[in-house]
Amino acid sequence: MSRIIIIGYMGSGKTTVGKSLAKDTGMPFYDLDWYIEGRMHRTIKQIFDERGEEGFRRLESTMLHEVAEFENVIISCGGGTPCFYDNMDYINQQGESVFLKCTPDVLYNHLKMGRTERPLLMGKTPEEVQAYIKEQLTVRTPYYSKAKHTIDVTLMDSYEKIKITVDKIKESLNLD
Predict the structure, then answer these.
(1) pLDDT for 9-60, tens place per residue?
(2) What is the bridge-based pairing of β-strands 96-101 and 149-152?
(3) C-alpha of 30 from chain center
(4) CA distances from 32 to 14, 52, 74, 121 (A)
(5) CA–CA separation, 13 and 1 (whole Å)
(6) Burial status of residue 33 (CB atoms within 10 A of its CB: 0-12, 13-18, 19 or more)
(7) 7, 63, 108, 119: least surrounded by Cβ within 10 Å?
(8) How far apart are CA 112 and CA 107, in angstroms?
(9) Radius of gyration of the chain (CA)
């Protein structure tokens, strides 16, 4: 196994699961957003503000192609990463893709408790955020569904359940 690439909507737990899986397997972990921020010396929000979404997506695709060349790594992608350019096909070519799937209500609850600023949600009311999540899932799920593995993370609300999710991924990928 050289690369495990985790995808899913923002708030689905990609970073949390990726870090836990990395700790469990001893593989290095890369969060694509953190990687971009480190390389660009800017936050994702600053990049969005400076370049707009299109400029960010081009940069994100370039950085995906860079980090996905690393060997024996676990990568968590941004929620939109698989949905632009040839990114989903590239992800599947580069490694084992894992889609963390959950309901819009769970995503909303995770996002409202989140500590990070999400540029695509800025300035929206709670009702607008809920509607936006549902709309985005309709658009993005066809991309996410191309993943080689799908893990339901609807009930991933404790450390114990994170461990169960990691174990499900390891079982799905035949890791031990």
Answers:
(1) 998 999 999 999 999 999 999 999 999 999 999 999 999 999 999 999 999 9
(2) parallel
(3) 11
(4) 10, 18, 10, 19
(5) 22
(6) buried
(7) 119
(8) 9
(9) 15
One-letter amino acid of 40: M
List, edge to edge, every strand of the sheet that includes 96-101.
29-31, 73-76, 3-7, 96-101, 149-152
Q: Is 3 left (phi over 0), alpha (psi -120 to 50) or beta?
A: beta
Amino acid letter, 80:
G
Helices (H), the chain: 14-25, 32-40, 44-67, 87-94, 104-113, 126-144, 159-172
Query: What size, in residues, is the chain?
Result: 176
Beta strands in 25-174 (DSSP E): 29-31, 73-76, 96-101, 149-152
